[in-house]
Amino acid sequence: MKQLFLCLIVFTSCYTETQKPDYKFMNLVHQQAGLDSSLKTTIELVPKKYFFGEKKNLKTLKGTFKIKNTGDKPFKIMSIESNCNCITTSYNRKEIAPGDSIKVDFILDLKNSRGLIRNSIIAIGNCQFGNQTFYIEGTIF
User: Fold this and answer.
1) Which of these, 85, 123, 81, lies nearest to 101 by C-alpha position?
2) Half-sphere exposure of 47 toward its Cβ, with a 13 Å CA cutoff?
3) d(CA 81, CA 133)
4) Between the CA of residue 19 and those of 2, 15, 132, what are the distances in Å?
């Protein structure tokens, strides 16, 4: 008798044995994915990635990126979330008109970090899934 084994692996950022997945965040992503496609718009993050290089004893990293609405409907921001509690964000509006953009400021707490750093910030709202992630990468030694 032949048996078929199916293994589904789901990766969530910042998951370790001591830090469980953020279910609130995952629920927001599911809400976004479940929106009627006629209500969705497209966005672009500029830049898409921030590579800060190799730094010695860096305690915090501050930066900005823009979210531009490239679609024809207003982008309504449900949330701008990080893959861990080490990043805080601030922005001034919850809605971006077509053709308009907003600036998102972030602060990454690196006090207890060493080695390769890979984090992300996700804009959750009525946009097409897949183009709303801003990446931060570098090395702390």
Assistant:
1) 123
2) 9
3) 10
4) 38, 6, 24
Measure the CA–CA gap between 121 and 46, rounded to whole angstroms.
Answer: 13
Q: Which CATH superfamily includes the segment(s) 39-140?
A: Immunoglobulins (2.60.40.10)
The tens digit of pLDDT for each residue in 100-119 reads 999 999 999 999 889 999 99
Q: Which residues pair with 67 in a beta bridge?
A: 45, 102
- Whole-angstrom distance, CA of residue 10 vs CA of residue 70: 30
Contact (Cβ atoms closer than 8 angstroms) between residue 80 and residue 123: yes
| Strand positions, DSSP E, 1-100 | 43-46, 49-55, 60-69, 75-82, 87-90, 95-96
pTM of the model: 0.77
